[in-house]
Amino acid sequence: MSAEPTPHVAVVGGGVAGLVAALRLAGGGVRVTLLEGSPKIGGKLQVSEIAGLPVDEGAEAILARRPEAVDLVRELGHGGDLVHPGTTTASILSHGALRPLPSGQVMGVPSDLRALAASQVLSPAGLARVPLDLVLPETPRGDDVSVADFIGARMGREVVDRLVEPLLGGVYAGRADRLSFESTLPAVAAAARGHRSLINAVKGVRAHAPADPGPVFATLTRGLGRFPHLIADAVTAAGGEIRTSATVRELRRTPDGWRLTIGPTRDPEALDVDAVVVACPAPPAARLLAGEVPAAARELERIETASMALITLAYPASAFRRAPHGSGYLVPSVEDRQVKAVTFSSVKWPHLRDADPGIIVARASIGRVGEEHTLQRSDEELKAAAMTELSVTCGVAELPVEARVTRWGGALPQYDVGHADRIARVRSAVAAHPGLAVAGAAYDGVGVPAVIANARSAAGRILEYLESRGDENDGQAREAEGTRP
């Protein structure tokens, strides 16, 4: 009796989710083909040189207190390349001045009223409103509610506008009026179900945090954009195939598995596989699933995305009248500034400063959901906006030696109210189709560790399906063998 052929699995999408799923599958003994539509892998993790320094064009840090990402770097043999910030001290530009981010907060939700007052982030009236949270009756919220509705009801709108939304804006580029409290602030939301007061709920979150949790963030010495390539090397070393410029245009069920249509319409290629992991962003995932899993596609179509641009500026150190002392600052949308955040990369990451002490690298972020018109300007206009911001806020009086604009269209999925239920419906619809799984930033968290976790889970479900199918085939073979004369 001939041996069963090795199962073949396609992974659609070459970002971290697709690469991690491919690595898990290749390690599970199956044949893997990863298909990425663009010319390069990595998704939003990209790095290139500016002024001779490797500076990330997208996300620059991984959350170190959640283990999946840093553990994977170590598993890949590059633990020695992990580095941590020299400072995580950040500021808020509020009422026209840079003010310290108050201590005692969790994603902008305060618990220390003295520290909040000392920061001067809020107006006197806004500050006076916050302690009413301690005496107000419980705020009903049902299964979910927007961040603005719940926190605003407890602490007042200024806390939302000047603290919470700027911090969430750095993650989602979203609006607190629409973002889900349950999905974007899960620890605070869970604690708030056990406390009438939100201040006391946040105190509880902080009290249960480890006494010495270690560094908050980490990156790689040559940029976080190296990370996808480290994973890709491991995939190919395990026998997996990675194809770029291979756009998947259609996904259809076949009697034995799935058929993917790849490439241009004038010269399509068909790829038949036993199973598929769809690990691309929500909009293309919806298009691929529309034919076979329309219920999942409809839910994914409802996930809006935000676009943004990152303007990286390399200045001579002399351009700053005094060197920046913090990692950067956030800009609330109520300040009506074009830039929503600035990171002083050379201050935040000592390895960049040490590589060239004569250069200060700053990254300015422009664009929130619903503000696509701000990104329709030319690269030169976006550079000018970023330079003006640093001139006004930091007194920078020289031109940068080099500047770079990186545009991320539709890069950030919005976790709007009802997100968790929406994703549950997607997964329920997908689960009805054996040999199919989904993964990526649109589901359980936009951070790299969360994406790694759901990619591994998706690949695990595929391996379980293939194993059960193999057991079924073995049983049928034994049954057939027993009926032979």
UniProtKB/TrEMBL annotation:
Question: What catalytic reaction does the record list?
Answer: coproporphyrinogen III + 3 O2 = coproporphyrin III + 3 H2O2
Its BP terms in the Gene Ontology are: heme biosynthetic process
A Gene Ontology molecular function term for this protein is: oxygen-dependent protoporphyrinogen oxidase activity
Q: What pathway is this protein said to act in by its record?
A: Porphyrin-containing compound metabolism; protoheme biosynthesis
Q: Which GO terms describe its cellular component?
A: cytoplasm
Q: Does the keyword Oxidoreductase apply?
A: yes
InterPro entries according to UniProt: Amino_oxidase, FAD/NAD-bd_sf, Protoporphyrinogen_oxidase, Zeta_carotene_desat/Oxidored
Give the chief site where it resides.
Answer: cytoplasm
Protein keywords: Cytoplasm, FAD, Flavoprotein, Heme biosynthesis, Oxidoreductase
Question: Which cofactors are required for activity?
Answer: FAD
This entry's Enzyme Commission designation comes to 1.3.3.15
Residue intervals of the Amine oxidase domain: 16-463
Compartments where found: Cytoplasm
Write out the similarity annotation.
Belongs to the protoporphyrinogen/coproporphyrinogen oxidase family. Coproporphyrinogen III oxidase subfamily.
Function recorded in the entry: Involved in coproporphyrin-dependent heme b biosynthesis. Catalyzes the oxidation of coproporphyrinogen III to coproporphyrin III.
* Name of this protein: Coproporphyrinogen III oxidase
What gene makes this protein? hemG
